[in-house]
């Protein structure tokens, strides 16, 4: 019984350590975006925020890599996070840049068309495309953390298709991210210091399950 209790507590402490260390590394890697969000009015500084947002993608992908390594019994969070940055920063930055550019264009179109007669038809469609772009980007970053050498066609096709095919899982992932945005707005210290990695872990777990039809996750983790 004592051995079981000791193992349980060791697992809990290891998981808490993973979340805290990853949270710190995530904040540091996303510092330009964090500073802008905390010191400016997003309604006025959105062009700068749009420029800084892609810089956060490598850190998010590295966090997913740390979660993956922990689940597979691999290296610690610091080493895994660094390995994730080293292996995926170029491609994750490209995913973040393309997604941000697409979302900005769509939102500008929403604003431009909101006062026209076509708004009732066009605006909901554009809003759906924004949600799809964010959902596909999230899946792409998770898949990239799992298989850094995946081909672009397979990566993007699987991300777009499965975000639609398993829309109910997509809704859960996006829901926790929206909740994190609310926490950050209400209590930035709590959002940055504790809940960021927790929310990303939940989104990562859900996204891995979403990707199961196209990824042999057990094999990928072993590799």
TrEMBL record:
<keyword id="KW-1133">Transmembrane helix</keyword>
<feature type="transmembrane region" description="Helical">
    <location>
        <begin position="189"/>
        <end position="205"/>
    </location>
</feature>
<feature type="transmembrane region" description="Helical">
    <location>
        <begin position="120"/>
        <end position="145"/>
    </location>
</feature>
<keyword id="KW-0812">Transmembrane</keyword>
<feature type="transmembrane region" description="Helical">
    <location>
        <begin position="44"/>
        <end position="67"/>
    </location>
</feature>
<protein>
    <recommendedName>
        <fullName>Ferredoxin-NADPH reductase</fullName>
    </recommendedName>
</protein>
<feature type="transmembrane region" description="Helical">
    <location>
        <begin position="12"/>
        <end position="38"/>
    </location>
</feature>
<keyword id="KW-0472">Membrane</keyword>
<feature type="transmembrane region" description="Helical">
    <location>
        <begin position="88"/>
        <end position="108"/>
    </location>
</feature>
